[in-house]
Write a structure and sequence with these properties.
This protein has a three-stranded antiparallel sheet with strand order 1-2-3, with no helix packed on it. The chain is extended, with a radius of gyration of 23 Å. It has three domains: 11-81, no CATH class; 85-114, no CATH class; 118-184. By secondary structure, it is an alpha/beta fold. It is built from eight helices and six strands. Strand 2 (42-45) and strand 3 (49-52) form a beta hairpin. It starts with a helix and ends in a 9-residue tail after the last strand. The chain has helices at 4-7, 19-25, 66-79, 87-91, 94-107, 118-129, 144-153, 165-174; strands at residues 34-38, 42-45, 49-52, 135-139, 156-160, 181-184.
Length: 193
């Protein structure tokens, strides 16, 4: 009798080297401690010195800006470091409401809503726009948060090859003619590394 357990591939792939070898080679970069945020997108990394931060989310360069730091310190002084619960139930501060009102004015809309992260934004918004019977057509290189929002919606999700408009057109033609269709493409593709 053949041992079928021995034929199954392992759940995790075997690494070429163990983590210590990657560290010795100087190419292991996970969970490196940032000791200091420096100006102009630079950081001081423990054991490595000053480095350029290419994996961060400070797209507008506001991390560490003196006005932002001052406003954050004032907010912590007035409100503390957190709320009594999630925003929906017990965590809405007047700061949230003021921010949303200012954003709505800036965007010239009736209202605005903010989320705690881009991931949560994609998850919440996409899943609310679609339902069973709809089709969401997703660029192959969209961020995982977009894909998760599509899956959570319970719409039929299909992908098209990255930036391939002919393939997108085929996917649109194949979609359920009775349901809604939504095409989603990322603004900055970061998932092709």
């Amino acid at each position: 009798m053949v041992d079928t357990a021995a034929l199954k591939p392992p759940l995790t792939p075997e690494m070429l080297w163990d983590v210590d070898t990657y560290r010795e080679q100087g190419v292991y970069f996970y969970l490196e401690e940032t000791e200091e945020l420096l100006p102009n997108g630079r950081v001081q990394v423990k054991g490595r010195g000053e480095m350029i931060m290419l994996g961060g989310y400070s797209y507008l360069g506001l991390i560490g800006h003196p006005h932002i730091n001052q406003a954050a310190a004032a907010a912590v002084s007035q409100y503390g470091t957190g709320t009594y619960g999630v925003r929906l139930l017990a965590g809405t501060l007047d700061l949230h409401t003021q921010l949303e009102q200012k954003l709505a004015e800036f965007k010239q809309t009736d209202a605005a809503v903010t989320f705690s992260s881009g991931y949560v934004t994609n998850l919440a918004v996409i899943s609310c726009l679609l339902r069973r019977g709809d089709t969401v057509i997703c660029d192959k290189l969209n961020h995982a948060s977009i894909v998760d929002g599509c899956l959570l919606s319970q719409a039929r999700m299909v992908r098209f090859r990255h930036n391939d408009m002919a393939h997108l057109e085929r996917r649109l033609q194949e979609a359920n003619p009775h349901g809604r269709k939504l095409v989603i493409v990322d603004a900055v593709f970061s998932m092709d590394a």
